[in-house]
Sequence to fold (692 residues):
Amino acid sequence: MKRKLLPLLISLVFFSSCARKAVTMESLLLEMTDWESLARYPDPEFTVRQFSSYDRATTEPGDETWFANWDRSMFIRIEEQDGRKEYVMFDSEGPGSIVRFWMTFAGENSGLGTLRFYLDNQEHPAIEGTAFDILSGNGLTQYPLAASVSEETAYEQRGHNLYLPIPYEKHCKITYESENILDEGAKTGGEAVYYNINYRTYSPNTRVETFTQEYMDKVSPLVTEVCRELTRTESESDYADLQVLANSETIAPLGTMALSIEGPAAIQRLQMKIDPNISPELLRLAILEIIFDGEATVWSSLGDFFGTGYQIRPAHTRYISVGNDGSLECRWVMPFREKAEIRLHNLSDNLPLELNYLVNTGDWKWDNRSMHFGCSWHQYTQLQTGGSKTNEGQGHPFDVNYVTLSGKGLYAGDALTIFNTAYAWWGEGDEKVYVDGEAFPSHIGTGTEDYYGYAWCRPEKFTNHPFIGQPEGSGNFWPGYTVNMRHRALDAIPFTSSLRFDMEMWHWANAVVNFAPVTYWYVMPGGKSNIEPDIQGAKAKVAIIRSDLIEPVISNGMMEAENMAVDSISGGNITYQTSDIWGWSQNTQVFWTGGHPGDRLELSMISDEARNTHLTARFTVAPDYGSVRVYWNGKLIPGTFNLFNTEVSTREIYLGLQPLLQGNNIFTVEIISEGKMAGKAFFGLDLLKFAQ
Fold:
């Protein structure tokens, strides 16, 4: 008993399983739609690696350049072909297959250059066209195998994703031709080219049928059917032949619900239905644990497991769905030989957890390639992100471990829930994946958003792709909540002894974040994850607003400006600027740019007591700063303060004896005039002092 596919795919999957002799585009497409393929170790075996435009200064762990960030327009070499200059992005011996290809661009006329795929050392390319047409247009295939995200983002700022497999028997070389590229890293301008290319390499004796346009035309009906399968919404009839275990439960505070299923079998679908208005605290405190054949391989906060974090955000990929009605569903196949135990723990000490659940199970023939499903979750709570960064890697970025796996298995994807507290992009960091003890990662990327399929830090949501998603992006440029996900199919990474997945924490600002990755994987019995159940992380206060992580409380007669709450801004942009040379306390100031005369910025802070206080402000003065006036709790403080100075420095200005209120206090800045630099009226505040 198995779940159903579209009729054409059912017959083709059966035929392919009976006559599997070669790796072809057809076999790869069918593997992509075969629900069970991830749960068995690959046969024939292969490795998955990545070529990318990562900064080539990244060479030695521990060295400052390990976090170098000129991750663009970096190529293997430049070749001259028929009088044209082609930049080589990819060069690998076969037998193998391209399984994922992502790009984005910047600069005038970018993305309009020509991509060429040279297969099996042929003189002429098997695929040729503009990058946009091939990766996300209709030049090679159709959605979702070619897609740009988010559809709400301007096209030139999207991530362009090709998931159509391109197999080759002997060799593959991919080049990009553009007259707009000026230098390595695009450091002097010109076209900035970012790329990540995931590819398989099979053992030498594996027979692979190389891509041709003729073969592509032949399998066109299958491509269309695969695209339908990847984008369709499943119906209950797909599960009609499977066994069902369902009930409603109320789990008392600190209680546990437990289910037991006898094997051999495989969980084909796991559904939970919770109150759509569930409190974020309770959703984070609900813990899913699954034990297969006596081995606990799944331990995750419930919402994070389903890719929504601790707030309900609708999403749909091939493997998970989240609905506005509180419905949660996962479709990873989870086989076991003897018994599966599903436990749902309620770690809340005062709130009951009410839910409906449904588990579909089907037959499974356990063999020596069968693997247990695993999922690890943990949170880096109130993670300090380091100082102000440079593209050379300065400013103390660092690597954060998603998971380290031991044993033999397959890495199947991950999701990330982050709460950002700064008015700056948090995800400049690159993924680094080490397979089977590699000293240097075989996967090293160009940015966190690039890894998750989008580009340019964009906050727009996308929830309609089978393998990637951003159900929430409001924390990308501003304090707020973001969820990213990437689920793997043909780009799943096999390992024979170990896999370590790190992501750089490379935040442009000196900030505090909550950073919670969840990873999905399969392992042979006995495989382990290094991530222990993170009860402390689950019990940590969830962040809904910035002050949940950074309380704007006056302490020791002082209030750091970067710790104040930004209540409102009528024009321009706020960021937290960091530097160790201008004399700012904690090396950070609130920096307001883009404002004009008449614009106001309102900051607030909390006092534990009411009293009169001598108020002093430490402002930044600089050549591009303007004149302002200030208000305390709505009352204008007499005078206009000219913050122009020929050099950057700080200046303390006494603002008089002012009433400090118990509870909330508001400090308002209004721009009066621009400085001596036309069109600029920048403003910077380091701190406020409150003296008796």
